[in-house]
Amino acid sequence: MERFTVRTVTPEDAQALLDIYSWYVENTAVSFELEPPTVEEFRARIAYYRRRYPYLCVTQGDVIVGFAFAHAFRERAAYDYAAETTIYLRHDMRRRGAGRLIYTILENELKKMGVTNLYACIAVPDGDDPHLSDASPLFHQKLGFGSCGVFYNCGRKFGKWYTMIWMEKIIGEFVGDPAPLIPYPVISGDKVDDPDAEIGRITEH
């Protein structure tokens, strides 16, 4: 079996990533989108997030089996040192190490930028649920995230109300006068696809 490799996403990867994401939209409450976006919308989202943050994919051979990225926790400048993270793996590739690998690399790249706080917004099941398991909170817990907030019954999908939790991980030191956050393209040397890209419907919950 070929090893997993992590690299930066390109615009040409949009369809492969959308294929992975669409399964979650159509079959689970992991994403609160009700309909998958078009490939054009998804490509625009990638371009928007890549203007400032890492957007990575994990491959096995030449096949993309998952992706992870970060974006602003909130848009105001005071929140610059906090970032929200998102991960999706091909549904038949979970629990094989690809998620831990790509999330660890994402965290390390965010540290280079100067990010101190990571946040993940996660839907949690209320008992047995055919559309949602506790895999995501358990995955984040194993990687050092802790629960820091609950939003009860804030989303509705498949005719059911769902609760969201926020999980947090501190990855940096809080100094009195921190250096400005470094945009990821400066660190990686990657060419930004479209500096004027506008985001479509969000990929997160």
Describe the protein's topology.
Elements: E1 4-8, H1 14-27, H2 39-50, E2 55-60, E3 63-72, E4 82-89, H3 98-113, E5 117-124, H4 135-142, E6 146-157, E7 160-170, H5 184-188
Parallel strand pairs: 4-5
Antiparallel strand pairs: 1-2, 2-3, 3-4, 5-7, 6-7
Account of the 3D structure:
With 205 residues, this protein is α+β, with helices and mostly antiparallel strands. The chain is built from five helices and seven strands, in the order βααβββαβαββα. It has a seven-stranded mixed β-sheet with strand order 1-2-3-4-5-7-6, with helices on both faces. The longest helix is centred in the middle third of the chain and has 16 residues, at 98-113. The chain is globular. Residues 194-205 have low confidence and may be disordered.
**What shape does the CA trace take?**
globular
Strand content: 25-35%
Structural class: alpha+beta
* Mean residue pLDDT: 92
Low-confidence stretches: 194-205
What can be said about the biggest beta sheet?
Answer: 7 strands, mixed
Q: Give the number of helices.
A: 5
